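tmp note - Secretion system C-terminal sorting domain-containing protein
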Amino acid sequence: MRYLFTSILSIILVSVSHAQTNVIDGHEYVDMGLPSGTLWATCNIGAESSTDFGDYFAWGETEPKEEYTDKNYKFFEGYKEVPGVGYYLLCTNIGEDICGTEYDAARVKWGGRWRLPTFEEVGELVRLCWNKWEEVDGIWGRRFHYGANENTLFLPAAGYAATYQGTTYRNQNWKGYCWTGTLHRAEGDPDDLIMKAKDIDYDSGSVGRRSSMRTIGLPIRPVINLKETGIDDIEYKQTIRMAYHNGSIELSSIANCDHIDILNIYGQKVLSSSVTAKNIDVPQFSKGIYICTLTKKGKSIYTQKIIIK
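out:
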């Protein structure tokens, strides 16, 4: 009986493992069912598992280093004085978006179609996914979960790598970062003030999209999107907007959608209905957060978080 139970348990574990991960271009990914179709790698570059921190890269560099300083940054050009204010770092402009380019460590190290995530793809994790701070095998990090999909993404709190007076600090296991391929520009900044790039930033209290100095080392969690290769073309533009008002969800247009699915905060489907009018009655919905997904002929075209107060 014990042998039978063990065998059944082994089959279940193997089945779950295969359901959660697959391999593309030599590396495992997890499909969380995100609206964009983005597939996230299960580990950072240089890591062997989801809890390994992996390697650290300055933005636009494709090899890890022992030290991360301004002056050993490949694209360092000097400093510029701002009278009465101080100095800021001058860096070579290698592009507003380096995803998939020669400056993308994910593309260079992993090859194939793997690349850095964009700022928008990181935003999809932040805006649409439920996430929680948890410990796995002694490593803290954020686990992301989308809708009713059982597959999850774990990002370890790998910290960063920055060198000061000969010592490289990493601050691991309490703060997490991962690069995107998007350059940071603030409104009103001078054209040559491009010393930062966008990242995802998370700890025990929050997760968000922010920016860091390009010269420091951050981990990279590669992504892949088969829609970019022509395998799964996007047919409809995501131009619809939704809002909740007096017991109904109001759509700005129904021209490009024919069905709606709504999930509650627990990932349970609470409504699945054809779309025939701009107003969808949901009088039974209680206060809380809901994820609404519109589809057209089975293709997801727009997903939005709705809060009922």
